[in-house]
Amino acid sequence: MKYIVILGDGMADWPVERLGNKTPLEVADKPNIDNLSKKSRLGMVRTVPHNMPAGSDVANLSVFGFNPKVYYTGRSPLEAISMGIKISDDDTALRCNLVTLSDEDDFENKRMLDYSAGEITTEESSILINDIAKALNTENISFYPGISYRHCLIWKEGPLEINLTPPHDITGKAISDYLPGGPKAEIALELMKKSVDILKNHPINQNRISRGLNPANSIWLWGQGKKPSIPLFIEKYGLCGSVVSAVDLIKGIGIASGMKPVKVEGATGNIHTNFKGKAEAALEELRNGKDFVYIHIEAPDECGHQGQLEEKIRSIELIDKEVLGTLLEGIRDLDDYRIMILPDHPTPVAIQTHCSDPVPFMIYDSRNTDVLNKDAVYTENYCKENGCFIEHGYTLMDIFLQE
User: What is the pLDDT of residues 94-119, one digit of tens each?
Assistant: First the structure.
């Protein structure tokens, strides 16, 4: 038996008036998913436990089968593991976004214009972060370049209790109410302010402005955490797995749990990613002996954060055609298999950030040839009205893997 998870990050949504009060999942043309849903187990699952942040870190830990209330130590340490950064027990890791702030003179008066600095390229951002590191690294502070706008700061004996806000939660808002607070907040704030002076007239940003692109004119710190300790997936479930993702967070969860991270050429973490290449990479892992593959697609989440309704619908359609379609065509020569499809959390276009609402899931078993419900479709409303409800998201993996 082979097991495949297709995780459409942020794929779930709320009804949209422009769509006749339907969601992107309801209007997207997704024949492969909907056809499988007629032979699948459907339902809703709470991936974000009550009183925990509605982030991809918490939600994906749940989907992987790990109770976030037990194993969650923060987002950035998982990303750091994927980046190959060694973390000591007394280190605090922080996500360091390159962002676009408005150009008021006083830092406190600026607004968050773009949490991703126009989805800056990795080539450009690496130069910027390396220059920031040269200027701001100390015995206790170290910056590390990552992918696109996503980077890392390791702070020796840094505070875990510092109050930091995800930049994608405050798009368009004044940053004055969301500046660092709590223990050693003044150090974090000073780093952010100093980054503005380094980046303001940087040749990379001058070039981006000349091309009509958003400059990466500040860093933004958030997502702090300590070194994680996650059980090995093979010890918990007896399966050898791989993770296919362009996002360090997801690769980090996979690596921390003993899975193989798979690099796919052209995988970007946005809608311009290599959808088909991810499916082909997953098939290759299964053919080479892996029992389990976790395919993560970031595109719907990025579209939700940017308020791009049509692009979010298109990303769902590409997941259906290029990911699931490729898998169904290529998996015929393998053993029996199961496929689970779900988001980690909703990223409603209306609010352009995450929420902790339960999400729809479907589990298909190739051995089941009977149509369970000829009218079934994979949508939030259908799964809610006609499926089961799973309160503890980390138990869904047990259900998926049970024989």
Answer: 999 999 999 999 999 999 999 999 99
Write down which residue in 225, 250, 272 finishes a domain: 225
Question: Is residue 105 located within the same domain as residue 54?
Answer: no
Work out how many domains the chain is built from and give that number: 2
Looking at the structure, tell me whether residues 106 and 139 fall in a common domain: yes
d(CA 270, CA 247): 10
Domain assignment present for residue 75? The answer is no
The mean of the pLDDT values for the chain is 96
Distances 235 to 186, 239, 241, 293, 309 between C-alpha atoms, Å: 43, 8, 11, 16, 41
CA distances from 351 to 12, 102, 308 (A): 13, 21, 11
Q: Are residues 382 and 236 in the same domain?
A: yes
C-beta of residue 241 within 8 angstroms of C-beta of residue 292: yes
Cα dihedral 251, 257, 259, 261 in deg (nearest 10): 20
- Model confidence, pTM: 0.88
Q: Is 212 left (phi over 0), alpha (psi -120 to 50) or beta?
A: left
d(CA 2, CA 241) in angstroms, rounded, equals: 10
Checking if the pLDDT of 373 tops 90, the result is: no
301's tokens: 């989440």
User: How distant is the alpha carbon of residue 256 from its chain centre?
Assistant: 16
DSSP string covering 95-115, please? EEEEEEE---SSGGG-BEEET
47: helix, coil or strand? coil
> β-pairing, 91-101 with 150-156?
antiparallel
Q: Are both 158 and 235 inside the same structural domain?
A: no
Stated as kind and residue range, the H or E segment containing 121 is: none
Query: From CA 120, how far away is CA 104, in angstroms rounded?
Result: 22
pLDDT per position as a tens digit, 80-95: 999 999 999 999 999 9
Q: Based on the fold, state whether residues 307 and 249 are members of the same structural domain.
A: yes
Tell me the pLDDT tens digit for each residue of 234-260: 999 999 999 999 999 999 999 999 999
Query: What is the residue range of 320's domain?
Result: 2-70+230-401
Bridge partners, residue 16, by sequence: 22
Is residue 58 domain-shared with residue 169, that is, in the same domain? no
